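Researcher: Next sequence.
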Amino acid sequence: MTLAIVASVPTFFGDPGREAVIIGGLLLMIWVADLPSVPLLNRVAAALAASSIYIYLIHWQIFRPVDDISLPLALLASLAFGIAYAMFVPPPGRQGGDRGGAVVHPSCSPRLAAPIVATRFIGTSITFGRDENR
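Model: Next structure:
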């Protein structure tokens, strides 16, 4: 996998700095099982991850007007507005219903609708299976 990443990413974007960051991030995800972190950083990362779709959807409405003032301020404002927007919008599928918001076709049993998740890592390979705890 490492060889495939190192062989395929360079020259893909035409920006060596961006390609180095992408290669480094992919290699970290493959080879480093745990990264120690502080709880505050974990909370910030969780908020950004949970809000990422909303940040993506509204960032140009925020970024463009603030970009003329300051580029770092435009980035921070886009992130802040995206996180705030995510706090006030209900998650998809949670508008009501007696299934807790899950959208499942009546012909599907809950057992068949259970998501397939990665349950265990063995070396560098991933074993996939059904999540039996759901």
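Model: Helices lie at 2-8, 16-31, 39-67, 71-88, 110-113. Strands lie at 116-122, 125-130.
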